[in-house]
Specification:
41% of the residues lie in helices and 4% in strands. It contains six helices and two strands, in the order αααααββα. The chain has a two-stranded antiparallel sheet. It binds zinc ion.
Length: 187
């Protein structure tokens, strides 16, 4: 289901806050299409910090592994990254589909070290929304359909008081890759 308990604006606001605090940069310097690495100076450890802040805020688990890592695991070695450390055609197609406009600069054969620069503020927002959208219809503890937002960001059962349990980000990436594969959209 598409959850509507936490509005997209709230997610945008919290992502901006996590980035500003995680990178220790000025408020207002974050735009939706800012590349975290290229425009905001993020390094790989910063992503962990930003993700951790968002996980705490929303009570979710974001993906720990990249789409490329999942592709290699699911579809075999060199399905995403060739022997020279370059993006395969399949991987470029997957990433373009996943990142939309943000992935427009992706080309097969590009060095995979250049790939993380496509992660923008907007793609982090999408990642959070994707996990929030895995909200089950009913509470897994008591079966009630009475979700309610606590502090605007944690979804709680209005009947028994338990927090909602979401699918974790890595499982969602695998499900998505599986769907792409089955629908033969990419392969
Ligand atoms: Zn409940």
């Amino acid at each position: 289901m598409k959850q509507s308990i936490i509005p997209e604006e709230k997610v945008v606001e919290e992502v901006n806050k996590a980035i500003v605090e995680g990178l220790d940069i000025k408020e207002g310097s974050v735009a939706p299409d800012s590349s975290l690495i290229r425009d905001l100076g993020a390094e790989s450890l910063d992503f962990l910090d930003i993700n951790y802040r968002l996980e705490q805020t929303f009570g979710i688990k974001l993906a720990r592994h990249s789409i490329l890592e999942h592709m290699e695991e699911m579809f075999g070695e060199e399905s995403a990254i060739d022997e020279n450390g370059r993006l395969t055609e399949k991987a470029a197609a997957m990433l373009r589909r996943r990142f939309g406009d943000g992935g427009a600069s992706l080309e097969p054969g590009m060095d995979i070290d250049e790939v993380p620069a496509i992660v923008t503020v907007r793609s982090i927002v999408d990642g959070v929304l994707h996990v929030l959208d895995s909200l089950p219809d009913k509470c897994t503890s008591c079966g009630a359909s009475a979700w309610t937002p606590e502090d605007g960001s944690r979804i709680k059962c209005g009947s028994c008081g338990e927090y909602a349990v979401f699918t974790n980000g890595d499982d969602l990436v695998r499900e998505w890759l599986q769907e792409m594969q089955e629908e033969e959209k990419i392969f």
